Amino acid sequence: MKDIFEAPFIVRMRKVTQNMYRLGWDERNGGNISCILDEDEIKEYLDLNNVIRTIPMGFEAKDLIGKIFIVTGTGKYFQNVGFDPEDNLGIIRIAKDGTTAELLWGFKDGGKFTSELPAHLMTHSVRLKKDPRHHVVMHCHPSYTLAMNYCVELDEKIFTHKLWETCTECMVVFPDGVGVLPWMLCGTNEIGEATAKKMEEFRLVIWGLHGIYGTGNDMDEAFGLIETVEKAAQLYMISAHLPRINTITDDQLREIAKGFNVKYREDFLN
Ligand code: 13P
Ligand code: ZN
Asked: Which of 23, 72, 76, 118 is least surrounded, with the fewest CB atoms within 10 Å of its CB?
């Protein structure tokens, strides 16, 4: 067996959690990530017949039976993933009953997967149906995006439009817009189900007054979506109290969509 600490999927998780922590998106234990691991990718590093323990999930993930995920632990600090991945991360496989996770590696202090596993797994299910290349679900609390939640209506047309008109690249990066949920209690199956429903239309979903979810075929894509929203939100928040002299107009947004040949939410323009 090869050394798992050298595995690209561990290196990637260490890097991305450090980046997110340094960007201020993941204070304390804020945020969580899950990523589908393809069997070919891990069999050189792990004995897949060795189940360390089983952990009940409290919901059913029938579509994901047999799938393997690397996932951050509940209560774990992103800033610690880099130097102790085996404590702060786990590799789980969804058992045949669809309601239990089989721990294959990690959570070495007896810990378990993020409390947001319902939102992650339900989202994986939906996004995989949209695109079989889908792999990553990322949740975090980026400051400017969150600040915008307090001064812009929690409405997906209004919120998306404000982001699009603030930064030229937004229309290119997320032409499908940003889904928005009202404030809901986190860590529940209900918020998981609501998130997954939004993920049928969007790759980005804001949890009102809490944070954001981004998805993608790889870590860069999920990260890049959130990063682009956060950049626009930052520009919005540092300029919102000043007189607005210039803006990207709806006609210019249409021109961007045409120029970059992207299919966008036309109903989000005026
Ligand atoms: P976990 O520590 O359980 O991952 O929760 C963090 C969080 O951001 C809750 O929404
Ligand atoms: Zn959160």
From this structure: 23
Does the Cβ of 217 fall within 6 Å of ligand 1?
no
CB of 75 closer than 6 A to ligand 1?
yes
Whole-number Å distance, alpha carbon 239 to ligand 1 midpoint, is 31
Question: Distance from the CA of 186 to the center of ligand 2, in angstroms?
Answer: 7
pLDDT at 135: 98
At 27, the pLDDT band (50, 70, 90 cuts) reads very high
Torsion of CA 255, 259, 262, 263, to 10 degrees: 40
Pick the closest to residue 92 from 69, 75, 74 (CA basis): 69
Q: Is residue 80 within 6 Å of ligand 1 at its C-beta? A: no
pLDDT averaged over every residue in the chain: 98
CATH number of 1-114: 3.40.225.10
Q: For the chain, which residues make up each domain, given as ranges?
A: 1-114, 116-270
Over the stretch 174-205, which tens digit does the pLDDT of each residue have?
999 999 999 999 999 999 999 999 999 999 99
The helix or strand, by DSSP H or E, that contains position 122, with its residue range, turns out to be: helix 117-130
* Nearest partner of 221 among 118, 134, 145, judged by Cα: 134
Query: Which CATH architecture is the domain 116-270 placed in?
Result: 3-Layer(aba) Sandwich (3.40)
Prediction pTM value:
0.98
d(CA 252, CA 270): 12
6 assigned to active site? no
Domains 1-114 and 116-270 share a fold: yes
pLDDT tens, 119-166?
Answer: 999 999 999 999 999 999 999 999 999 999 999 999 999 999 999 999
CB 37 within 8 A of CB 70: yes
Give 248 Cα–ligand 2 centroid separation in angstroms: 31
Which ligand 1 atom is at minimum distance from the Cα of 140?
Answer: 8
What pLDDT, on the 0 to 100 scale, is given for residue 234?
A: 98
